[in-house]
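All the exercises in this workshop are built on plain-text protein records. The record below serves as our worked example for the rest of this section.
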Amino acid sequence: MFNNSIHIDSKRMVRTITVTDDAYEALHRLKKHPGDSFSKVILRVARRRGSPLKVAGAWKDMTDEEARGLVERSRRDFESIGGRR
């Protein structure tokens, strides 16, 4: 007998997106190893985001010098993924 049922894994559906060359290069730089997919890179980046309320008040005891260092590191990180000043 034949089984006529079809299973579709909705988590594996493929979508085509259009990105600029700059965005492509930024994603490509974030690949951790040759077998890393762009989907994995996008998910890693998207999961980094969180509610700003989770860190509210985290800087209250920070010195001005520590704050400047944090801002500079943040700018470098942002630029390393293709962000512009």
